[in-house]
Amino acid sequence: MRRHPDSRHAGPMPAVRGDWSTIKSLLPYLWDFRGRVALALGCLFVAKLANVGVPLVLKEIVDALDQASAPLALPVVLLIGYGLLRLSSTLFAELRDIVFAKVAQRSIRNVALKTFRHLHSLSLRFHLERQTGGVSRDVERGTRGIESLLRFAIFSIVPTLFEMALVGAILIKKYNIWFAVITLGALVVYITLTIVITEWRTHFRRAMNELDSKANTRAIDSLLNYETVKYFNNEDFETRRYDESLQRWEKAAVKSQTSLGLLNVTQALLIASAVTALMVLAADGVVSGAMSVGDLVLVNVLLIQLYIPLNFLGVLYREIKQSLADMEKMFRLLAENKEVDDRPGARPLLLGGAAIRLDHVDFHYDPNRQILFGVSFEVPAGHKVAVVGTSGAGKSTLARLLFRFYDVSGGRILIDGQDIRDVTQASLRRAIGIVPQDTVLFNDTIGYNIAYGRPDATAEEIIAAARSAHIYDFVQSLPDQFETMVGERGLKLSGGERQRVAIARTLLKDPAILIFDEATSALDSHTEKIIQAELERIAEDRTTLVIAHRLSTVINADQILVMEAGRIVERGSHRELLARGEVYARMWALQQEEEAKQATEPPVPGRLAAV
Fold it and tell me: Alpha carbon 352 to chain centroid distance?
């Protein structure tokens, strides 16, 4: 049989990050494209120079045309220059977008990919506590915020300030000091007001994000539990809960929008006052003869060109603050510490016979609630050991520890003499296959879900796995056969069908170690006997750990461990434990009595049949 040769509690999420921390988190992604960023900025500065040059040439054209004796060639040359500057302004702006497009989209892709990979690297504890809807919305908003931040920060802040400096320099050089005083004074007041009011508004945006995530979490949680909602006739209750979240989001959104209106009015009032004052000065200069008509046109066009980026600066700052608020949670996810990680220098697991040994293992999810107490046992290579006990005894926790979803709190777990904390998680999990009690499938085809055990498997291998799991005939009876969609979480299939897909998936993986965690719990008695015989066959010569509640499924195990309250209270073969007449014997007698009672009782009307 084929064997694969290489087969810290997470702390609370960090407090609200500073804006600079978020920006610094993004810089490494841009550094990979520093050449493109520099070229794009160069194109942008050329576009801004051309943009400021347009009104200067326009002044000369107006003054030239205002002179009756002006030679015809001069305005023609200036008009051509005017057209070229207009073209250059647009051309280099478009070149900037062309050069930078790959930078923005690749950065978004890399951050999203890193976040996705990081979420998969976090411990099971994090995923048991997370809210799927909120996390997905945080990542969605965060990646969208990256694009906005890149576009606004890199291509707007510095170039806008550069254009403002050019305009100010022209006004100071060509006209009296009051033009520069009014212009620069308006800039300072405008920027100050924008920053102050936007900072005040930011907490509204953050509240909107929080409430939006909560509303989305409630909606997704309700839809995932569609059947439960229907069972208890709670559609109206779920709608009210969702609306409660939406109402709170609506209030925060209204505050955000009205405060935005206040900011816009303040900005418009300031700009209108400054423009009016400058135009009065320019008109007075023309009347007094100190300025030409071309100068009036120059001041007017410069103010228009200044007004547009100045007005945009307000929008820009708001967008950047909103983008940073949107990105904040995503980068907080990236800052979430891994509870379980490969140690430095961890090596691949080297498999021999795949013998398992637990050596005085203690474990707790929470320090105040210990689950396992000094658990020790061995599963020799190629043997089968079963673990039985009541619910909550800690049986399934053993499987999670073997997969290293958690690290032990005390003691150690060894495979072929290697502490599993010293080997890579990838090689460890490659060596273990599990058929869990609660099988959840991807919302894809039956073929895809079976092939998930080994994505590079051939069609023939997938069919062979389906035959071994006794699901092939069922699949062939379906109109779309292996292309049949299983629905969200596999709910289009019955519990037994999902379980057989899970068995086929594990068979395809062909692991050295097998774990059956209540693997036949969802099957009817007839199917259970068939699948049980198949599991017995595939478990031959493999190291197998069986976690079971139904004792009849483990009577052929080489050793049976009986657990109570996180401790092993008995161990031995089926016959030895029955002869001992203690915990296992009582459990066996009770189950036999229940099975006999169920066999003689007539079916209760309305009772759901076993799936």
Answer: 38
Query: Is beta strand 418-419 parallel, antiparallel or unpaired with respect to 369-379?
Result: unpaired
Torsion from C-alpha of 533, 538, 542, 547, nearest 10 degrees: -50
Cβ atoms < 10 Å from Cβ of 71: 10
**Burial letters 24-53, b for 16+ CB under 10 A, else e:** ebbeebbeebeebbebbbebbebbbbbbbb
Domain residue limits, the chain: 19-335
Q: What is the CA radius of gyration of the chain?
A: 35
Q: Which of 399, 353, 373, 346 is nearest to 548 (CA)?
A: 399
384-389 and 559-564: which strand pairing? parallel
- To 10 degrees, the CA torsion angle through 261, 262, 264, 270? 160
Q: Look at residues 164, 94, 191, 151 and name the one whose alpha carbon lies nearest to residue 309.
A: 164
Residues 192, 104 contacting (CB under 8 angstroms): no
Confidence check: pLDDT of 65 > 80: no
Q: Which CATH architecture has domain 19-335?
A: Up-down Bundle (1.20)
Write out pLDDT tens, residues 73-108: 556 777 787 778 777 777 877 777 777 766 767 777
Any idea which of 18-27, 230-239, 277-286, 337-346 has the lowest mean pLDDT? Answer: 18-27
pLDDT digits (tens, 9 = 90+) for 197-234: 777 777 777 777 777 777 777 787 777 676 677 666 77
Q: In the prediction, which pLDDT does 231 show? A: 62
